[in-house]
Amino acid sequence: MEKTLKLGDHDYRLHSSLFTIIDYRNVFSTELFSDIKRLEKSSTKKEEDLSTVIDTIFKIIYVLHRPFSKQSYNDFLMSLDFSLLSNQDELENLTNTIGEMLGTFQKSTPPATKSK
Asked: Which residues contact 67 (CB under 8 A, 6 or more apart)?
């Protein structure tokens, strides 16, 4: 799947495939879906959890953007404006895009009706 994500003044092309899982592990030495589960369990009320959430979200975006860029992770982060973290709409768009790209959001389907 491919999608374009707008963050601040920049558009980032993203690509997800089965290789995304392997690439994430190769780049960050952790498992993608384990990190996502850790995100779901964390509390953004604690500063250390908030830092982990932010780091993990941007690691995922970085790996999804990697097919289109040769930047290092540090250079990628340095290209992002800090004000992004205070923009609720952009953060929601960011997390929704990750969910779509990785298939972690379940689309609700209406319950099947039984025929008599």
From this structure: 13, 15
